[in-house]
Amino acid sequence: MAVILISGGSGLVGKALTARLLDEKHEVRILSRNPSKGYPVPSYYWNIEKKEIDGEAFHNVDHIVHLAGAGIADSCWTEARKKEIFESRIKSIQLIESRIIKKGIRLKSFVGASAVGFYGMRTSEKIYKETDGSGNDLLSDVCVQWEKSYEPFINYSDKHCVIRTSVVLSREGGALQKLIPLFKAGFGSAIGNGRQYMPWIHPDDLVSIYMKALFDPEYHGVYNAASSHTVTNETFSQTLAKELGKPYFMPAVPGFILKIIFGEMAGLLLNGSRVSNQKLLDAGFKFKYDSLESAFHNLIKGA
Ligand SMILES: NC(=O)c1ccc[n+]([C@@H]2O[C@H](COP(=O)([O-])OP(=O)(O)OC[C@H]3O[C@@H](n4cnc5c(N)ncnc54)[C@H](OP(=O)(O)O)[C@@H]3O)[C@@H](O)[C@H]2O)c1
Fold first, then answer.
1. CA-to-CA distance for 267 and 263, rounded, in angstroms?
2. Residue whose CA lies nearest to ligand 1 atom number 37
3. What is the mean pLDDT of the chain?
4. Which domains are present in the chain?
5. Which tens digit of pLDDT belongs to each residue from 190-221?
6. Which atom of ligand 1 is nearest to the CA of 146?
7. Cα–Cα distance for residue pair 160/65, rounded to 1 Å
8. 0.85 exceeded by the pTM?
9. How many Å from the N-terminal Cα to the C-terminal Cα in the chain?
10. Pocket flag, ligand 1, residue 165 (CB < 6 Å)
11. Going by C-beta distance under 8 Å and a sequence separation of 6 or more, which residues neighbour residue 264?
12. Could you tell me the distance, in angstroms and rounded to a whole number, from the CA of residue 14 to the centre of ligand 1?
């Protein structure tokens, strides 16, 4: 049994990872801004702005997972929101680092979240590998700085992994949860020209990747966490409508309208490239849900 501390463990990924870790009899603790909410595992307070963190969270800790961060697509990218997106990820890990140094902790592993947005909000036929360079926009800047803030952990842990995550499909939160009611009401449609790629992953597979990153000595460095079956936005939308048994006839949502509504953030919806998961496959990782149909079947019909 190992002791794992998860920052932002109350979120979509954190809850799924916690459940798997508990199933495997590990001890899980989470760092939260609101630790009194009643979580299934002990939760510890931190306040990133005030640089406050409950030192008890670090007692005998073996592994740390950093998931905390203000939702990228939760609200428009005002200057204040951009600052929060950066600081909630970077100042938070720096606060954790300060505790690690103060307490002289040596970790068995450190795993940090990042996003496939590292490669930039652009539509291209290129299939991005972990060795490719970053893009040149807000999201890639976030990912670059986020990943850079993990570098010191190479010195504090026996191993170190970064998970560049694609869109996590879940009914509990994120994009799919928002899309299902729209599609059920018959308003499902593509976005923009529909040709942008949408790398995605089923939460069970993402959790399995985190488990490998935490415990498998063969896993080191950066991994793209995306299924092999990357589809365009149009195919994604058609497949979702079909799975829900709903018609698909609405015109695509024009890109210029999204730009008016969401400003710079519209780029997230209107662009997308493919990413390679070959590094995971080469490490022997087996996806449980590698086709979009199988993922939807499971998530929507429980099959
Ligand atoms: N879900 C996806 O599709 C996806 C895709 C790519 C990358 N990622 C990244 O993977 C990580 C985990 O994703 P997720 O879907 O589990 O995220 P999530 O559901 O939004 O949860 C993130 C957690 O971070 C904490 N948090 C939120 N705002 C914060 C702030 N301003 N300061 C400090 N903590 C804050 C919250 O915990 P408390 O409220 O308890 O403090 C929240 O539960 C995130 O960093 C996300 O950007 C996710």
1. 8
2. 8
3. 95
4. 3-169+201-227 (3.40.50.720)
5. 999 999 999 999 999 999 999 999 999 999 99
6. 45
7. 10
8. yes
9. 31
10. yes
11. 77, 138
12. 8
